UniProtKB/TrEMBL annotation, chain A:
The lineage of its organism: Bacteria, Bacillati, Actinomycetota, Actinomycetes, Pseudonocardiales. Residues 26-262 form the ABC transporter domain. CDD domains: ABC_Iron-Siderophores_B12_Hemin (cd03214). It comes from the Bacteria. Keywords: ATP-binding, Cell membrane, Ion transport, Iron, Iron transport, Membrane, Nucleotide-binding, Transport. The keyword ATP-binding applies. One of its GO terms (molecular function) is ATP binding. This is ABC transporter ATP-binding protein. PROSITE patterns: ABC_TRANSPORTER_1, ABC_TRANSPORTER_2. Gene3D superfamilies: P-loop containing nucleotide triphosphate hydrolases (3.40.50.300).
From TrEMBL, chain B:
It is found in: Cell membrane. The chain crosses the membrane at residues 40-59, 95-115, 127-147, 153-173, 185-209, 229-254, 274-295, 340-361. It is a multi-pass membrane protein. Gene3D superfamilies: ABC transporter involved in vitamin B12 uptake, BtuC. This is Iron chelate uptake ABC transporter family permease subunit. Keywords: Cell membrane, Membrane, Transmembrane, Transmembrane helix, Transport. The keyword Cell wall biogenesis/degradation does not apply. Belongs to the binding-protein-dependent transport system permease family. FecCD subfamily. Its main location: membrane.
């Protein structure tokens, strides 16, 4: 075997390891992303480490959702690669990826009249075949996911009759039933009032703490991102400006640079994480 | 793969208990699914209606035959004259209607599911008219030479090509990084109008005899249908309905939109193209046999969906309901107006048009809301 082939094999079988020795689950390597001619993200590198909750923040149009779509193989980079556990994600069978990586698109839509039980059961799709659509394992996983998100008693209700918060819990329950240890959430709190935003993010926190899920999510609210994520990735105009623990990322100079926002940063009186207080322009 | 979750119950209890409300398991060996009694009930009931409709339709005519005699003959009994009248003269007509209706309904169920829009039926967005335009072209150009084997083989093939070309054009024009139901419908309605214009133009330039022949055909007629019309649709259904049933597993995931479906490991573009191909072939073969019978593909899946109470048109129930509807419409067309026999497509159009209006009004309201 030539040395080259050996390294290639090693790369393929060994999990990638980050600078601090933690396993890298997802890696973006010099990716260029865009739609048609328009380039939204260029030459971007990112590591998502095992067991972390990463929140991607940035102003509208900075490419954070585009990045998340690429990490979830919904968008193919025109340059560079996304690696899942060291393998090129778009060379893996998509059904196999779906047993490891689950994703929740922004504002997902359920078919009209669908019940919560049927919605959550759809999460089992990657584990099923046309003749095997409701195995014992499927039922275990769905019953557990419903119970865990506290919506077992809603199972027979149509999804479109639920409140926004309940609906989002149903979708997270579906992602949970999929049984993947990696979860990508694209703005899971949009269209929710503050109480339900907190409720959904506490669910994500529990997923991470009790079920060991690795989570990457796009969030709009900086204070909630700082509280519920243990890593922040701040993006501006398709590039990563800063990344690291919230206390290192959320600083007054960074807010000015990334968001063009004059603000004070004080410790959150409840969680101790950074709290952004805008100064405003007048 | 992740380790399976530990079963919390002993295996026997696991097989019978409904642990997710509304999703009672049905399991035999490697096969499993959700037991939905309402689906089975709808299937059985519509099948009974279908059998009665066929028996009634076969019994009516110059020599009326009672339903018991018809049923006896269909299942192997009856005297020779009854056998001849029923099996040779009348049954092929009803069977053609049954198969054509079933094929159109399954085609409609698939397309409505893919586009998540009931208006995206092959009879609304120009698939059946694509098939018709090609077939009418053949009738007009073929003239008196289009008889026998040439007609039997040429018409279905022309219809198939016409349907496929129409589908490719519509899909291509409507595609913008994915398919959105309303764009597919709008493009399809435009293409449909163009194809109707093409057919009308062909009828004007055609010789009188060919024009008359084509006119009867484009109204959707089951008149003088023999076994040669039964066989092609029968074969198409035999191959494509199982395919549709297998693919309906993926169809369920496609319902959630492209991103969610991809996240669930569905190869969205490939699956959708395959489903579309099945739907187009079914619609084209049906059109080749009986002309573009209107509204069966639109209405049957919607009736089936409401009866079953599902979130998308069910393939099996749509098939049986489409078949029953078409045979019933043929019965009305043959017998409701005394000596005058109408083409079946006229009846389905009269019955289906109000429903189309209802859908248009409702969607217009939703679009404004």
């Amino acid at each position: 075997m030539t040395p080259n082939a050996e390294t290639a094999l090693a790369e393929d079988t060994q999990a990638l390891v980050g600078s601090d020795g933690t396993r890298v689950r997802l890696r973006a390597e010099g990716v260029r992303l865009g739609y048609g001619e328009r380039v939204v993200v260029d030459d971007l590198d990112l590591d998502v480490l095992q067991g972390t909750v990463t929140a991607v923040i940035g102003p509208n149009g900075c490419g954070k959702s585009t990045l998340l779509r690429a990490l979830g193989r919904l968008l193919k980079p025109s340059r560079g690669h996304v690696l899942l556990d060291g393998r090129k994600i778009d060379e893996m069978p998509t059904k196999q990826v779906a047993t490891v990586l689950g994703l929740l698109p922004q504002a997902p839509t359920a078919p009209e009249g669908l019940t919560v039980g049927d919605l959550v059961a759809r999460g089992r799709h990657p584990h099923q075949a046309w003749y095997r659509q409701w195995s014992g394992d499927d039922e275990d996983a769905v019953a557990e996911a419903l119970a865990w998100t506290g919506i077992s008693d809603l199972a027979e209700r149509p999804v479109d009759e639920l409140s926004g918060g309940q609906r989002q819990r149903a979708w997270i329950s579906m992602a949970l039933a999929q049984g993947t240890d990696l979860l990508l959430l694209d703005e899971p709190t949009t269209f929710l009032d503050l109480a339900h935003q907190v409720e959904v993010l506490e669910l994500v926190e529990r997923l991470h703490e009790e079920r060991g899920r690795t989570v990457v999510m796009v969030l709009h609210d900086l204070n909630l991102a700082a509280r519920y994520a243990d890593r922040l990735v701040a993006m501006k105009a398709g590039r990563i400006v800063a990344q690291g623990p919230p206390a290192e990322v959320i600083t007054e100079p960074l807010l000015r640079e990334v968001f063009g926002l004059e603000a004070r940063v004080i410790p959150d009186p409840v969680a101790g994480t950074p709290l952004v207080v805008p100064v405003g322009t007048r | 793969m992740a380790a399976p979750t530990q079963p919390t119950l002993d295996p026997a209890a696991r097989e019978v208990l409904e642990r997710v409300p509304g999703r009672r398991p049905f399991r035999r060996g490697p096969v499993s699914g959700v037991w939905r009694p309402r689906n089975v009930l709808v299937l059985v009931a519509s099948f009974v209606v279908l059998v009665l409709a066929v028996a009634l339709n076969v019994g009516r005519g110059e020599f009326p035959i009672g339903i018991p005699d018809v049923l006896a003959t269909l299942f192997g009994g009856g005297d020779p004259s009854q056998q001849f009248i029923i099996l040779e003269l009348r049954l092929p007509r009803s069977l053609t209607g049954l198969l054509v209706g079933g094929a159109l309904a399954v085609s409609g169920a698939i397309m409505q599911s893919i586009a998540r829009n009931p208006l995206a039926s092959p009879d609304i967005i120009g698939i059946t008219w694509g098939a018709s335009a090609a077939a009418v072209t053949l009738i007009v150009l073929g003239g008196a030479g289009l008889v026998g084997a040439l007609a039997a083989v040429g018409l279905p093939i022309a219809a198939l090509i016409g349907g496929l070309v129409a589908a490719i054009v519509i899909y291509g024009l409507a595609w913008r990084k994915g398919i959105q139901g309303f764009r597919l419908v709008l493009v399809g309605i435009g293409i449909n109008a163009m194809l109707v214009a093409v057919v009308n133009w062909l009828l004007i330039v055609a010789q009188v005899y060919e024009a008359a022949r084509a006119t009867v055909w484009i109204n959707g007629s089951l008149n003088a249908r023999g076994w040669e019309h039964v066989v092609p649709v029968g074969i198409a259904l035999l191959v494509l309905v199982p395919a549709a049933l297998v693919l309906s597993f993926v169809m369920g995931a496609l319902q959630y939109g492209d991103d969610t479906a991809r996240g669930l490991g569905v190869r969205v573009d490939r699956s959708r193209s395959l489903l579309l191909l099945v739907a187009v072939v079914l619609a084209a073969v049906a059109t080749a046999s009986a002309g573009p019978i209107a509204f069966v593909a639109l209405v049957s899946p919607q009736i089936a969906q409401r009866l079953v109470g599902s979130s998308r048109p069910p393939v099996g129930a749509s098939l049986v309901i489409g078949a029953a509807l078409t045979v019933l419409a043929d019965l009305i067309a043959r017998t409701a107006f005394g000596g005058v026999e109408l083409p079946v497509g006229v009846v389905t159009a009269v019955l289906g048009a109000p429903y189309l209006l209802y859908l248009l009004v409702r969607q217009g309201r939703e679009a404004r809301a």
